[in-house]
Amino acid sequence: MDTAATPALVTRQLTLAFIASFAALTSFYLLLSVVPKYAATAGAGGVGAGLATGALFFSTTLTELATPRLVARRGYRGVFAAGLLLLGLPAFAFSASTSMASIAAVCALRGIGLAIVVVVGSALVAYLAPPERRGEALGLYGVVVGLPSIAALPLGLWLAARVGYGPVFVTGALTALAGLAALPGLSDGEPRVEPAAGVMAALKAPALVLPSFAFLTTAVAAGVVVTFVPLAAPHALEGLAALALLLFGAASTLTRWWAGRYQDRHPRIDLLRPSVVLAGIGIAGLVLIDRPLALLATTTLVGAGFGVAQNASITLMFALVPRTEYDSVSAVWNLAYDAGLGTGGAGFGLLASRTGYPAGFVLTGAVMLVLLAGVWRSVHLVPRMPPATETAGPQ
């Protein structure tokens, strides 16, 4: 094999970025479904559960707009450290938060930290990876940050049911803080001038809007699953709901990795639109949530659609811009991710309070497919090959 033609994928720098991101996302997923359930049991009900998720992703979305400028001023390493601290330290306060307002405030603080680590994490991977293997590197990054969704998402619910919420909150806090150990050796990125337009310009670029909007619809479905499957499933299927979340996370992670490898080898194949269809069918199928096999199958479908859409969209978006715009592209993609998850949580909570869970699932799936029709005829949902002159960052 010609090693010069096939550069190494996993370097020391990428490994450090993976470790820090793994710690951050483990903390995030460990509490993602636990906090809404904690809010519901504290008397806030289903609307409160949705508001907890909504507060988390509302602050995440706002912070993602500013993160590229923070990176331009402080570099990757310092900003990543701030994100881990903000994701971890506020989690200690959940146990003392008994009102919906205080729970939402803690969620909002953690959302700031989440915004930072996800924007910096994916931008660092694109910056450090060999351009011709960027899709595979992003797929591997998807595995690293997706493994917590497989293990930590259901583990959080399982632990909360057996040892109580307090120990789970402490574990979530300590896990994020552990990621700080990987940062001293991490690259700070290239010196750069603060962007004049940054995220706002990227948000207006049609080539980036289409893939991010298509991806956002699958994130809405994911937000519904992680927030409401534990609440909508019948009490007799409570244990099965945790398994459903496990399958959701596994499908999302594996298909994200597969999509990265496949896209590098078949760059002209459109994977994004079929992924939205898959997720839409899955979320509508949750109308049968009281049937064990249907519960497991539909959450797996949503996870698969969500996973493919993650890699198909971000690979395309990075392929359309120069390296100097990676921070802004990462922010736009994560805005779609978090706006979708937040809308899925808060929006579906309000919808289901009026229609009930079954009708809410069907309506959500139908809206996703209608929105997809708006971008179906676009020819701009496949990536180009990376320029031959483009090089990877520090190894």
DSSP strand tally: 0
Helix/strand order: HHHHHHHHHHHH
CATH topology: Growth Hormone, Chain: A
- The low-pLDDT segments are 385-389
Number of domains: 1
Structural class: mainly alpha
Number of helices: 12
CATH homology superfamily? MFS general substrate transporter like domains
Main sheet specs:
none
pLDDT averaged over residues: 83
> Architecture, according to CATH?
Up-down Bundle
Radius of gyration: 20 Å
Determine the strand fraction and express it as a percent band. under 5%
Give the termini separation. Answer: 21 Å
The CATH top-level class label: Mainly Alpha
How much helix is in the residues? over 70%
Task: Give the overall form.
Answer: globular
Which oligomeric state applies?
Answer: single chain
Describe the structure.
The chain is mostly helical and 395 residues long. The protein has one domain: Up-down Bundle (Growth Hormone, Chain: A), CATH 1.20.1250.20. It contains twelve helices and no strands. The longest helix is centred in the first third of the chain and has 55 residues, at 34-88.
